[in-house]
Amino acid sequence: MSSKKDKSNNLDKYFMSIAMNLAKERNGLTGLNPSVGCLIVKNNKILSFGQTGFNARLTISLHDPSENIVTKTNIFSDSTGGFSTNDIGIPSSGMIGDWKIIAYSPGSVLQFTEIVHVVSPSENG
After folding, report:
1. 74 within 8 A of 86, measured Cβ to Cβ
2. How far apart are CA 37 and CA 51, in angstroms?
3. What is the pLDDT of residue 103?
4. DSSP string spanning 17-50?
5. CB atoms within 10 A of CB 30
6. Shortest CA distance to 78 belongs to which of 36, 19, 29?
7. pLDDT in the model for residue 32
8. How high is the pLDDT of residue 62?
9. Taking the chain (125 residues) in consecutive chunks of 10 residues, what is each chunk's mean pLDDT?
10. Maximal C-alpha separation, the chain
11. What's the pLDDT at 88?
12. Distance between CA atoms of residues 8 and 40, nearest Å
């Protein structure tokens, strides 16, 4: 007789094996970056899956402390699966407060948010 814990553990292993296989499909295609496979699972059902690779789109937006979007850009991953942009930056005239950088891949349910605290410049420059 298997317990609920055993059944859950077997499902976890099953879902992890799918993610690992997704990652293996990208071996050698991400340069120095590790290849990654991921699943989003809810109630033992796969809602979404993805893997690293080139030409993936990422949308990045910069929000000022009043929640206004100051800059928004779309970038694509390079041949190694990496992302880089110089399009996002707090302006030198930017107001004091908490700025947000939000990044997400269109079509994904996940997003990354980073808070940047802007304080008064010192009198010494």
Report:
1. no
2. 4
3. 86
4. HHHHHHHHTTTTSSTTSPP-EEEEEETTEEEEEE
5. 21
6. 29
7. 65
8. 94
9. 66 87 77 72 77 73 95 81 79 90 78 85 49
10. 72
11. 86
12. 16
Question: Considering just the CA atoms, what is the radius of gyration of the chain in Å?
Answer: 20
What's residue 123's pLDDT? Answer: 47
Q: Which residues contact 86 (CB under 8 A, 6 or more apart)?
A: none
Q: Tell me the one-letter amino acid at 62.
A: L
pLDDT confidence of residue 100 = 94
Contact by Cβ (8 Å): 49, 41: no
pTM for this entry:
0.54
Residue type, 7: K
DSSP assignment letter at 120 = P
Q: Which residues does 105 contact at the CB level (< 8 Å), separation at least 6?
A: 50, 56, 57, 58, 59
Instruction: Look up residue 119 and give its two tokens.
Output: 């304080």
Residue with token string 């997704």:
22
Residues 23, 37: contact at Cβ < 8 Å?
Answer: yes
**Annotated domain spans of the chain:** 4-51, 57-118
